[in-house]
Design goal:
Blueprint (H helix, E strand, L loop, with lengths): L1 H25 L8 E5 L1 H12 L6 E5 L6
Helix pairs in contact: 1-2
């Protein structure tokens, strides 16, 4: 779980700190409606991001992940 927490923290910091600001600057997205998705390990990561950063993501798609670890 410790490694997952680091991955989630790193992802949310990057998304919130850089990606959302750039999307707003370009005027191409509403940052209150950002989604996350993934397949396999990406699905596991998407589910973790939704669980640990609910204020950052409006929704997510997790396809074929291994969640019960």
């Amino acid at each position: 779980m410790h490694g997952t927490r680091l991955d989630v923290s790193a992802c949310t910091a990057h998304i919130d700190g850089f990606c959302c600001q750039e999307l707003e600057r370009r005027g191409v997205a509403d940052t209150s409606k950002i989604a996350v998705g993934g397949h396999s390990y990406g699905a596991f990561m998407a589910a973790n991001l939704l669980a640990h950063a609910p204020d950052l993501f409006a929704c997510g798609i997790a396809r074929s992940g291994a969640y019960n670890r």
